[in-house]
Description:
Elements: E1 12-21, E2 28-38, E3 43-47, H1 54-61, E4 69-74, E5 77-78, H2 84-94, E6 95-99, H3 110-120, H4 127-136, H5 152-164, E7 170-174, H6 182-199, E8 203-206, H7 210-213, E9 218-223, E10 226-232, H8 236-249, H9 256-259
Parallel strand pairs: 3-8, 3-9, 6-7, 7-8
Antiparallel strand pairs: 1-2, 1-4, 4-5, 9-10
Helix pairs in contact: 3-5, 5-6
Bound molecules: adenosine-5'-triphosphate.
The site of adenosine-5'-triphosphate has 12 residues, from strand 2 and helix 1.
Amino acid sequence: MTASRPAASPIASARGLVKVYGGGDTAVRALDGVDVDFGRGRMTAIMGPSGSGKSTLMHCMAGLDRPTSGSAVVEGEEIGRMNERQLTKLRRTRLGFIFQAFNLVPTLTALENITLPLDIARTPVDRAHLDAVVQAVGLTDRLGHKPGELSGGQQQRVACARALVARPAVVFADEPTGNLDSTSSGEVLGFLRRSVEDLGQSVVMVTHDPTAASYAHRVLFLADGRLVGDIADPTPETVLATLGSLRRTGPRHAAPAEASPSSSPTAS
Ligand SMILES: Nc1ncnc2c1ncn2[C@@H]1O[C@H](COP(=O)(O)OP(=O)(O)OP(=O)(O)O)[C@@H](O)[C@H]1O
């Protein structure tokens, strides 16, 4: 829970974040100097065209990839200064992950999948919190089922519960509804939003889907590795309008203020 921290303090920040893959003529500047604060107890969506750097930004923030320069800070910890052991510990104990492909262990039950991160970290299960999370995702009567016996939506809800059960500082979700129909997507996104409202969770989600993005408090837009747009309290219509205006003006010329007058790139 996050109640003891001031609401204004971001849960994660990037400053001058640059990521270059490869070198020489074939070097790709996937992130080209990103400055952003991710709000504590907020749900932030990241959008942008294919190849714009969304996954790279998320991976650098989550310690899954190392920036070339600049800083990525999560809960006051500079990710770039951590060694592999520290990064593994951070990911295991302070971060939650949800991927498009569910990534459940097929031989384990739903309950065993949910508690797996705690079991690996040898952290005792907080029964009351586990019950609250299981109930919130609506899986109480499915806990003994294996992933193969669950629908895609139910499997992703297991993955959501697994990401939340250790009370992470941030849940990073990469296209969490990419494999789901619209009904299941709505359930998963509604749950993620409620985890923010009811459990004080902070969520950062990459998505291509304007409807999915509209569940967030805020949507960031990337193009060519730069932050080019930023809107608060999105609706599918405002997200689509912003995407349209960025397409018209071109990413190199669209300042965040043009995309939305309502918030700045570093507002949380
Ligand atoms: N491991 C890598 N090696 C080389 N180039 C990479 C690597 N990972 C990403 N890139 C390149 O960096 C750029 C940004 O990629 P990234 O995956 O972050 O974009 P994205 O916005 O998440 O795209 P998508 O929506 O298609 O998933 C792309 O040009 C991509 O080809």
